[in-house]
Amino acid sequence: MPEGDTVYQSARRLDTALAGKVLTETDFRVPAFATVDLAGRTVDEVVSRGKHLLARVGDMTIHSHLKMEGSWELYRPGAHWRHPAHQARVILRTEDTTAVGFQLGLLEVISRDREEEAVGYLGPDLLGADWDAGEAVRRLAEHPDAPIAVALLDQRNLAGLGNEYVNELCFLRGMLPTRPVRDADLAAAVRLGHRMIVANRDRTVRVTTGDTRRGRTSWVYGREGELCLRCGTRIQRSELGRNELELRVSYYCPHCQT
User: Residue 156's CB: how many other CB atoms inside 10 A?
Assistant: First the structure.
């Protein structure tokens, strides 16, 4: 599942291409919204909220979530698409741009005044203008027995961190992913998570180590069996989650993290 900075970048690209433009054609390829036609309406803006995308068109909002496989891509009229047409879930056309949402895990068209029903459950948005670190800490602290990695991944606590950031954050804070929330310095973890995602929101390659060289951009994520860049211990991998549907892969250094 993409990290919040990936969704933020997608929203900015869509906003740059579509905001202020009149839609000349819309094609929603999901049964529940197949008859919706927003042609003739102007796109006001496209924004991200955690890992959700909100394209505001007049009094309507196109709400999407990439989930695991989804993407939004922009093309010039007539240009060849990089993915097969049957994977397109929505097509938005203006006079000079075609925006295509491929394999979106969630797509719906709702009235703008119902946005809070769709995303209001989310915690503070790490990349939002209204980011509230104190509220994020408060929500995390409400689950003292939860493993810290599970709590940080829960978008109801704070919105935007995915598995990669959470693994890297746990390493940098010296915490095993299984450490209970009650034993973690929540304020420090939230500050660091915010600092990391803000530092990467404009980058094409995500870096958490400060080293952009190949194979050295992350401390533990995806590095099972490789040597810890700090102490030389082999990185280990495990699964963590409240049930089979929520299992996440965790990477950690058994020496640097406790």
Answer: 13
The residue written with tokens 């992350």 in the block is 218
Decide if 67 is catalytic: no
Inter-residue contact 176 to 208 (CB < 8 Å): no
Write the CATH number for 73.
3.20.190.10
Backbone angles phi, psi at 51, to 5 degrees: -100, 15
Q: Does 96 score more than 70 pLDDT?
A: yes
Q: Which of 63, 75, 12 has its CA nearest to residue 36? A: 63
Annotation marks residue 3 as catalytic:
yes
Q: Is 128 within the bounds of a domain?
A: no
**Alpha-carbon span 112 to 161, nearest angstrom:** 25
Q: What percent of the chain has pLDDT over 70?
A: 97
| Other beta carbons within 10 Å of 174 | 12
Backbone conformation region of residue 192, classed left if phi is above 0, alpha if psi is from -120 to 50, else beta: alpha
Q: Residues 115, 140: one domain?
A: no
* Active-site residue, from 2, 124, 147, 177: 2
pLDDT exceeds cutoff 90 at 225: yes
Q: Which amino acid appears at position 71 of this protein?
A: S
Q: By C-alpha distance, which of 78, 80, 104, 77 is closest to 90? A: 104
> What is the residue range of 211's domain?
133-252
* Side-chain-side CA neighbours of residue 134 (13 Å): 1
Q: Which of 21, 31, 45, 51 is catalytic?
A: 51
Residue ending a domain, among 119, 143, 160, is: 119
254 is catalytic: no
> pLDDT digits over 171-207, tens only?
999 999 999 999 999 999 999 999 999 999 999 899 9
